[in-house]
Amino acid sequence: MPGLSSVRDCLPSDWPVGRYAGRVLTAAGPSPILIEDGIAYDMSALAPTMSLLLDALPSSAADAGKALGAFDALDLPLLSPVDLQCVKACGVTFALSAIERVIEERARGDSGAAASIRTRLEERVGGSIRAVVPGSPEAAALKAALIEDGLWSQYLEVAIGPDAEVFTKAPVLATVGAGAEIGIRSDSTWNNPEPEIVLIVDSRGEALGATLGNDVNLRDFEGRSALLLGKAKDNNASCSLGPLIRLFDASYSMDDVRSAEVALTIEGTDNYRLEGVSSMNQISRDPLELVLQTLSEHQYPDGFALFLGTLFAPTQDRDEPGRGFTHKVGDVVSISTPKLGALVNRVVTSKDAAPWTLGLGGLMANLAERGLLSGQKAEQPA
Questions:
Q1: Whether pLDDT at 376 is above 50
Q2: Torsion over CA of 338, 16, 258 and 82, rounded to 10 degrees?
Q3: 19-25/30-36 β-pairing
Q4: 53: part of which helix (H) or strand (E)?
Q5: Comparing C-alpha atoms, which of 50, 333, 298, 280 is closest to residue 167?
Q6: Rounded to whole angstroms, how far apart are CA atoms 324 and 115?
Q7: In the beta sheet, which residues pair with residue 304?
Q8: What is the pTM of this model?
Q9: 348 phi and psi, to 5 degrees?
């Protein structure tokens, strides 16, 4: 795993205390696991997919699964901890990210033009936008003032308006896990990682736990046109999740999500180093509000993973003064928070990343060959 000497290095600081769900690659194929008291259990006989497992979580993994041994000694590759879940993402949920999106739009994807635009916007809206509640009368008044100043933007609409931005980040089964290569389009010249907490929601719409995610963003593509969001966000290996899903229990709750400090470190082969922090207590909309907006007129029979957005927007120059940050091949990106561990990936181009080959048909064929498909959805425990 890049930047880590062992699986233990990616685990939460209190990992033997919590309860976790994840996916590993066994000799037979992908298998969901539960980790309790530091022991990993293969749950594929009970529920062959993570989606089914989260809908039917047993009270005891030891009674329902096959013990694999101590998780930190497990010699099996970690996969992305979701499989059949839709991968959704919320954008512009922090004031600073709203300002940076407006900069992208105004600069038309040109990083060199960003600095002067940033200064003007921060002087005009920096304090106001941080204090306003999205969808409130005060937000409407700020919108009117910004329209009068010629500073209004579609990004500010989703930052302080009534409707959150929720989009589909990646196809089902296309995400990569901890230690995998993560992809940037080969024709992008201005891009960055987006370190985020990701809620895991079951088919009933209940948030069961959280993991870490990298919602890779191409600032030049989205800056040229919001209609290029698909190309900016959804490319081969452009979404990573992991290392594990920490399930909500007495040791970890939604309040831990709300108060988390998500750290980011980027280390380049050119000796460049960038550090940043995304403080979840500065999010404009509560995580559960974002879940409700995702569910408002849509159903997710296999559940979904929901990126909550990020405060982090890198502006530290890498090469030329005023050009800001962009990735280079070989960058090692580490996203971490004490109670969720560390998600570490190395940057390559999407063309050079491992191709996505296991789709829904391939997974179903594998599970059928292993005798794990009964045709019936796993029953929920009493």
A1: no
A2: 100
A3: antiparallel
A4: helix 50-55
A5: 298
A6: 8
A7: 86, 201
A8: 0.90
A9: -135, 180
